[in-house]
């Protein structure tokens, strides 16, 4: 009794597990196949076909088993098995496409982030190198610009026409000082611009690292490549992982229902029913009837004794 109850409980749990696989498979197939249509209505049609295929994947083995037990082994059982194999292959292709597109979207986003991080790192190195080549100005650019404004207020600025027509020694000295201050101002402006770029690239690199740009693009595929010592390429590892995930989902949806029901509900009652049918076909009579039949075979012999007639 306890063993039978345990089988029933295990079967119920198996059916719950199978329901999850069937729902997952149907969702995957519907999502992938409905996106292959040109319009929303056509997408719903293809999605309905995908759900029907998923349903037959779960029920097909039961139909084939029942047809085989009922003696329909000439056409019904083989046809059902062939249909089941074709439908499972169709669902497997949908699942592979679904997993590949999702993995591609995820890894593509990480790849783009990694490329942006590499670009930010390169720009940061270039900016730091340019800053190292420039000497830090003694005065900020704003202070130097004020000094330039004071120089332009001198009367020699007008007499030299903005230091374009210096004619005497005093004018040459004045303009020489002006050009030196202007060069200092340009260097200070360039240094300040490079500092701003360095801060921007540093902030961008930190933000991308926090977002996960420094992590591996596809850790699973990278692990497969490392375990194979480079014998498997990265793209091939991704293909095998996608196919394996799709196979798990579709095999779970196609086989768990029949395995779960076959574990808990097939047993003694089938054996008792079969033995009862065998007894009826053989024509065996109950013990009481057998006794009466034996009594009928007793006949009185001429010598007055009872004898059994064979």
Written account of the structure:
The chain is an all-alpha fold. It has one domain (2-269). It is 79% helix and 2% strand. It contains ten helices and two strands; from the N terminus they run H-H-H-H-H-H-H-H-H-H-E-E. It has helices at 2-34, 40-69, 76-133, 141-152, 155-159, 169-210, 219-227, 234-264, 268-282, 287-296, and strands at 298-300, 306-308. It has a two-stranded antiparallel sheet with strand order 1-2. A hairpin with a 5-residue loop joins strand 1 and strand 2 (306-308). Helix 1 (2-34) crosses helix 3 and helix 2 packs across helix 8. The longest helix is centred in the middle third of the chain and has 58 residues, at 76-133. Mean pLDDT is 80; it is low at 264-273 and 285-296.
Short description:
This protein is an all-alpha fold. It has helices spanning 2-34, 40-69, 76-133, 141-152, 155-159, 169-210, 219-227, 234-264, 268-282, 287-296; strands at residues 298-300, 306-308.
């Amino acid at each position: 009794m306890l063993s039978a109850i345990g089988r029933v409980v295990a079967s119920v749990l198996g059916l719950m597990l199978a329901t999850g696989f069937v729902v997952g498979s149907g969702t995957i197939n519907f999502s992938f196949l409905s996106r292959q249509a040109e319009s929303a209505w056509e997408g719903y049609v293809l999605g309905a076909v995908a759900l029907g295929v998923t349903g037959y994947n779960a029920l097909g083995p039961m139909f084939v088993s029942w047809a085989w037990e009922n003696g329909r082994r000439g056409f019904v059982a083989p046809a059902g098995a062939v249909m089941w194999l074709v439908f499972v292959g169709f669902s497997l292709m949908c699942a592979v496409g679904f997993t590949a597109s999702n993995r591609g979207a995820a890894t593509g986003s990480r790849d783009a982030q990694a490329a942006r991080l590499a670009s930010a790192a390169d720009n940061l190195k270039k900016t730091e190198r340019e800053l190292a080549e420039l000497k830090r100005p003694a005065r900020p650019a704003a202070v130097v610009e004020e000094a330039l404004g004071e120089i332009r207020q001198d009367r020699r600025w007008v007499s030299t026409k903005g230091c374009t027509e210096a004619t005497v020694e005093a004018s040459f000295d004045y303009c020489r000082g002006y050009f030196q201050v202007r060069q200092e101002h340009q260097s200070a402006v360039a240094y300040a611009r490079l500092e701003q770029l360095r801060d921007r690239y540093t902030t961008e690199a930190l933000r991308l690292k926090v977002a996960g740009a420094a992590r591996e693009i596809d850790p699973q595929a990278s692990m497969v490549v490392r375990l194979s010592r480079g014998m498997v390429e990265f793209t091939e590892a991704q293909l095998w992982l996608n196919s394996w995930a799709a196979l798990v989902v579709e095999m779970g949806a196609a086989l768990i229902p029949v395995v779960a029901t076959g574990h808990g509900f097939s047993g003694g009652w089938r054996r008792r029913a079969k033995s009862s049918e065998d007894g009826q076909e053989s024509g065996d009579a109950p013990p009481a009837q057998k006794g009466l039949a034996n009594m009928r075979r007793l006949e009185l012999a001429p010598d007055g004794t009872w004898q059994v007639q064979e």
